[in-house]
Amino acid sequence: MPAKSVNDIVALCKRRGFIFTGSEIYGGLGGAYDYGPYGVELMRNIRNAWWNAMIYARNDIEGLDAALISNRLMWKYSGHEGSFSDPLVECKKCGARMRQDKMKDQTKCDNCGSTDLTEPRAYQLMMGLSIGAMADGAINAYLRPETATTTYVNFKNVLDSKPHKLPFGIAQIGKAFRNEISPRGFVFRMREFEQAEMQYFVNPSDDEKYFEYWKNERLAWWINVLGIPAEKLRFLPHEKLAHYAKAAVDIEYAFPDGFDEVEGVHNRQDFDLGSHTKAQNEFKLSAKVLENKDSTTKLSYSDAQTGENFVPYVIETAMGVNRAMLAIMIEAYDEEDLGDGKSRTVLKLKPWLSPVKAAVIPLVRNVPEIVDLSNKLVDDLRKLAIGRIELENSGNIGKNYRRHDEIGTPVCITVDHQTLEDGTVTLRYRDTMDQVRVKTDEVPQKLLEIVKQ
User: 222 and 321 in one domain?
Assistant: First the structure.
C-alpha cells in the first residue's frame, strides 16, 4: 500500500540517496534540497516522460529553455514586481511568520496558539539580484519565479524562427525560485523547485474547447503514463480566479494528509501577450528608442488565410516536477510482511521510471571468472542505452536484494557458479520476488521487455 506518511518517503530518500537536505553540514537551508544519485535519475525520467508527451509525440508544440536570470523590467511589466506576493502574518508572542491563507486557523498562531498576531502584509515572493559591477546593491534582475513569463517574451522569436498555424504551444521545463514564507511538505513547497509548463496559443474563439482538451489530456497523462490511480486524482476548479484567468482548475493528488495540487490548467486569455505588447511600447517610448511614437511592437498572430491580426489566448498547463516525484514515490511505496518476522520495503515504480533498470550481482566476489562475467554482462546491458545498470558487489545477496527493492530496481541478475557451467543467470523480479534462470544471451531482450512495462 502507498506510504502512510510523507515521513516514510523522507526516511527512504535519505537512506537510499534520492534526496538530501541542502547545505546539510552547515545546518541546512529551509526549502532547499539536493537530489542524490537515484533522485536525479527519477527526476530525469519524469522530465523525459513529460517532454516526450509535449514535444516528441506531437507536431504542434516547440521546446524552449530560457534564462533563469531575467531583466527586472520584464517582471515589472508582467505585473509580478507589484503583485506577486503572499499575505504574511507574524506572531507577536513567539515570532513565527506564517502565510495567512495557509494557516490552520487565521485567528491563532500555528506555532504557539497565540491570538496576538500582526495584520497581514504583502510579502514579495520574487528573489531579487544585484548583478554587474555598477549595480551598487540595487535590484536590477530577478531569478525567475516561473517559466511562463519567459515563454511569453519569446513568443515572437519562436514563431518567427519556426512558423506555426494556431493552435500551437511552447513548452519549458526547468528551475524556478520563490521566497516562500513557510516551505513545507518536504519537496512539496520549496524556494527552489522545478516546473514543467506549456503555453498553448489559440484563437480566442476556441479557448473553451482547448481548455477542456488540455484538462483531459493532462489528467490522462498522470493516469496512463505515471501510473497514478484515477481514484487518487481529482479536478478542483478555482473558486476565486486570478485577475488574468477566465477559467482555472487544479489537478490534485491524494497525499497522505489530503488532496493537494500537483498541476494546474489555466485559461489566461490574452493577458500576458497583451501586457508585454503594451509594456514594450511604454518601455521603448520612455527609453526614446522609437522615433515614430505611433509604431508598435506586437506579440500577436497574423492569420495568413483571413488576414486577421490578433493577440492569441493562452491555455497553460503547469506541473510541479518535484511534486510529481513525491506523488510517484508515495504511490509506489510499500511495506510487505514476508512472514517469520521478516518484512521488506519496496518501491514498486513503473520499470521505465526506476532509477536503476537492472542490477547485476556476482554471487561470489572472490571468484575472478564470476566477477569477469558480471562485468561483461553489465557492459552488454549498458549498450542498450535504457538507463542506469549497476554492478552490485557490496554485500550478501539478501542485503543486495533489499537495497534494490527500496531503490525500485525492477530486476536483479545474479551470476553464480552455475553460470560458469551452463551459461545461465538468475533473474529475480522486484514485485513478486520470483526467481527464474535464463540464458545469459537472452538477458538483454528480457530486460528490454521489462523496461517497456
Answer: yes
Residues 438, 379 share a domain: yes
pLDDT in tens, 346-388: 999 999 999 999 999 999 888 999 999 999 999 999 999 999 9
User: 323-333 pLDDT, tens per residue?
Assistant: 999 999 999 99
CATH code of residue 226: 3.30.930.10
pTM of the model: 0.90
Q: Are residues 250 and 354 in the same domain?
A: no
CA gap 171, 155 in Å, rounded:
11
* CA gap 82, 353 in Å, rounded: 41
Selection from 401, 256, 441 nearest residue 330 by Cα:
256
Report strand pairing: 192-202 vs 313-320. Answer: antiparallel
How high is the pLDDT of residue 84? 72
Domain with 401 in it: 349-451
Examine the domain organization and report whether 320 and 189 are in the same domain.
yes
Nearest to 362 by CA among 419, 445, 323, 286: 419
pLDDT of 110-153, one tens digit each? 889 999 999 888 877 888 888 887 777 888 898 999 999 999 99
Answer for the pair 129, 55: CB distance below 8 angstroms, yes or no: no
Please state the domain count of the chain: 2
Burial class (CB in 10 A: 0-12, 13-18, 19+), 290: middle
Residues 305 and 441 both lie in one domain = no
Residue 35 lies in a domain: yes
Cβ burial, residue 234 (10 Å; 0-12/13-18/19+): middle
For residue 112, the Cα-to-chain-centroid distance in whole angstroms is 34
